[in-house]
Amino acid sequence: MEEDKVTKFDDIRPLTNDEVKEAIEELIASKDFERAFRYIKPEVNWPEFSQRMRGFRTKEEFKGVLAYDVVMMVARNTTFSLTVSGRSRLPGGHIPCTFISNHRDIVLDAAFLNVMLYDVGYGMTQVAIGDNLLISPWIEKLVRLNNSFIVKRGLSGRQQLEASILLSTYIHHTIKETGESVWIAQREGRAKDSDDKTQGSILKMLNMGGDKEDMVSNLMELNIVPVAISYEFDPCDFLKAREFLQKRDNPDFVKSQRDDLLNMETGILNNKGRVHFTIGSPINPLLAQIDKNADKNERYALIAAIIDKEIYKHYRFYPCNYVAYDMLTHSRRFRHNYGPRDRQEFEDYLKGQLDKIVCPNKDEEFLRTKMLEMYTNPLKNHLAHSPFGL
To answer: For residue 234, what are the contacts with CB-CB under 8 A and spacing of at least 6?
Structure first.
């Protein structure tokens, strides 16, 4: 019976330990993988690195050694600090959770969370990744070796429904049967304006694979724990602003695979300043209070609001957030939260990022506003859901 369960997940599950050796040999032989790795670590001795790779026999060894080292190298090279708070809110006894977070960086949100969970002895999660990012065979091989499972997108109506049911069933199976935690973003894709809101479709998907009669009980089985992610600087802010402009001028605009690759590279390799993750409180106590007879869509909206509020409450803010708010609103509301130097540094940063944008009919005022919104919206959401309000 267990084999049947595993077999039906073959298209989306991470690799098994029996598949590790073959996957590593394929990666070592891939010139594209070698080029990508040298992009991050130019001085690597490939023969020595290949031997090191061949020494890994399990996913756990690969994740806990190589993947961990690479992520920490990225953190050292591109962040001022990488910190976590709220560890005391993690469920005791290593109870598996579904971590749901806001989404800033395509690759690093889950990667950073995993290394910090690993450091506190909690263990790394399985990670949801959209198949639109699996641009090359080596990328799919790498992410599945690194314990990611695949979210299929862009399918026709019936196929998408079947894929969502399978995905949800897999997540429930992973939490209840495998005993591993999972990470999934609160929405499909990043909130490019940083106006973070949990999509009801994500909650509906998570409910599909449950075996309880009501959706609240199904979601409670997943032990949802919201996580708030706060980057001081978003290396992709100028790319996100450009995409807003492209969509404004051409409503049919769709990002290409090359755009996705550029976003991944830019996010990994460039400055992020201070990065902080806050683990929120498990939401099961609040879910238990929901009226199970209420309209289903109302319940989904209420659960989404519970997750959002927990994320908004735990953002960490930096001088650039306060400066951006005052610049966008033409006010001095937060003048006591930054100094003249902070404002000048952020204005210089903004100009430098805007200068990177190359596109026809460049609307600098529109682009600048969009970038200011990215740094302002988390603060607005935090204030709107605080006891003091706006």
So the answer is: 104, 105, 194, 240, 272, 374
Q: Are 47 and 9 in contact (CB under 8 A)?
A: no
Query: What are 170's two structure tokens?
Result: 């897999």
Cα pseudo-dihedral 169, 10, 49, 273, rounded to 10: -30
Q: Which amino acid is at 37?
A: F
CA atoms within 13 A on the CB side of 72: 12
Count Cβ atoms within 10 A of the Cβ of residue 262 and give its class: 0-12 exposed, 13-18 middle, 19 or more buried: middle
Q: If you count them, how many residues does the chain have?
A: 390
The alpha helices in 96-136, defined as continuous H runs, are: 108-119
Judge whether 131 and 215 are in contact, CB under 8 Å.
Answer: no
CA distances from 334 to 206, 229, 325, 389 (A): 39, 22, 8, 15
What amino acid is encoded at 347 in this protein?
A: E
Over its length of 390 residues, how does the chain's per-residue pLDDT go in tens digits?
344 444 789 999 999 999 999 999 999 999 999 999 998 899 999 999 999 999 999 999 999 999 999 999 999 999 999 999 999 999 887 899 999 999 999 999 999 999 999 998 888 999 999 998 998 999 999 999 999 999 998 888 899 999 999 999 999 999 999 999 999 999 998 999 999 999 999 999 999 998 888 999 999 999 999 999 999 999 999 999 999 999 999 999 988 888 999 999 999 999 999 999 999 999 999 999 999 889 999 999 999 999 999 999 999 999 999 999 999 999 999 999 999 999 999 999 999 999 999 998 899 999 999 999 999 999 999 999 876 554
Distance CA 177, CA 9 (A): 13
Task: Note whether 241 and 268 are within 8 A (CB).
Answer: no
Judge whether 247 and 253 are in contact, CB under 8 Å.
yes
How many CB atoms sit inside 10 A of residue 128's CB? 20
Q: Which domains, from first to last, does the chain contain?
A: 2-233+271-316 (3.40.1130), 235-256+317-390 (no CATH)
Please check whether residue 229 is in contact with residue 315, taking contact to mean a CB–CB distance below 8 angstroms: no
